[in-house]
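Internal tracking record. Fields below are filled automatically when a chain is submitted to the structure queue. Please do not edit lines marked as system-generated. If the sequence contains nonstandard residues, flag them in the REMARKS field before resubmitting.
Queue: standard
Priority: normal
Entity type: single polypeptide chain
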Amino acid sequence: MILGTMVSAFSVYVYQVVAGRMLGTDEFAPIGVMWTVMFLVFTVLLLPVEQYVTRHLTITGGRTAGDRTGILLVGGTIAIGIVLGVGFVFATLDRFFDGAAVYGLVMLVNLAGRSMLAVARGYLAGRRRFHAYGAAIAIEGVALVILSLFVAAVSPTTLAFAIAMSLGPLSVLIVRPFSGGYRGEPLQDASAQGIGFLGPLIIATGASQLVLSVGPIVVGFVGGTAAAISVFFITFTLFRGPVTSSYNIVARVLPDFTALAARGEQHRLSAWAGKLGLIGVATMIVFGISGWILGPTVVDFLYGGEFRPSSHLAALGAAGVGAALIALFLNQIYIARGETGRMAIVWVSSLVVAAMVLAVTTTEPVLRVGTAFLAGEATAMVLLAGVGTLAHWRDRA
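SYSTEM-GENERATED OUTPUT FOLLOWS
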């Protein structure tokens, strides 16, 4: 899985470097918006689907028979994600896509493929086929690189790069994710595995991804130019690499955390929450300093001078990503425990903090959004660690 994660992360950078250098800031802007919308739908709705499937199969020992409620929940969530993503593209055609309706069709293909990928990854992780999981994400990454290089050589247009981005997820079928599978002993678990679990999880991930990923779109709405959108997108997507890659790693962590929760070993999960909180503070500081010193140079080297951010923006992005990375692992404790309601409260509170910071700051658009991002992520990390630690001390007392 680690090797597959590294290949996947590297492939994203290759795709964005190739597309960015071929298109420039203005023509790359639609790619940045499409990627942001895809990423939001995947992480807000489809990643919870993956985690739902993973947790369910962990609890049932890999069995799916008779889970009609789960099928309806997963299918309905996927349908909502596709409608929202395609609807956004059509609603903003003139603002972000030069009025070209074909981008709506491309987004449909993109999200249909991502939906299949999410369910497939849930099957692989829930049945502990971790080698196949790693192979699947590596193959998807290689497919993305091959497609982007083909587009660069044959037809380096914005639309062609968007199509290339949309076809990669289909490669997951190569590993036959829905065949065979692990058959372990079912675990005893008292927490609900239905809408009471998935609904709050979607709210929590929705709020968390609004903080993490919606920045490029917000830059546009608060007065940023197409070039500013591209600079913000490239900078924050580059720095967000550790978080994006860790979506694959947590698929390995969640089954073990779920097993601990099902066996009643809550004290071990509480201990993990406290340790991760301390690690998170250190990570924010190290990432922030590194972003200030190295961030602009790295972006300039990879994407060219027109994408170069200020040191201030780079530091905000890197420090926020440090908090987001630790918050992602803290989330798995709540998911394992079935405490998605608490998780939702934390992330909605953090979104409110980010919105308040955005409202009161008066600097240029990219710095306003960057500051709000850091404030929201730091708030979430602290609250997740604190609530995750204190709640079960209280329950035991």
